[in-house]
Amino acid sequence: IKMIKKIACIGAGYVGGPTMSVIAQKNPHIQVTVVDMNEARIEAWNDDDLSKLPIYEPGLDAVVGEARGRNLFFSTDVDRAIDEADMIFISVNTPTKAYGKGKGQAADLKFIELCARQIAAVAKSDKIVVEKSTLPVRTAQALKSILDNTGNGVNFCILSNPEFLAEGTAINDLHHPDRVLIGGEDAAAIQALVDVYASWVPKERILTTNLWSSELSKLVANAFLAQRVSSINSISELCEVTGANVDEVAKAVGQDSRIGPKFLKASVGFGGSCFQKDILNLVYIARSYNLHTVADYWEQVIILNDHQKTRFAERIIRTMYNTVNGKHIAFLGWAFKKDTNDSRESAAIYVADHLLEEEAHIVVYDPKVPAEQIYRDLDALGTRSPADNRRLVSVASDPLSALNDAHAVAILTEWDEFKSYDWREIKQRMKRPAFVFDGRKLLGRAELEALGYQYYAIGE
Ligand code: NAD
Ligand code: UDX
Question: What residues bind NAD(+), as annotated (predicted)?
Answer without folding.
Answer: 11-16, 36, 41, 92-96, 133-134, 167, 274-277, 344
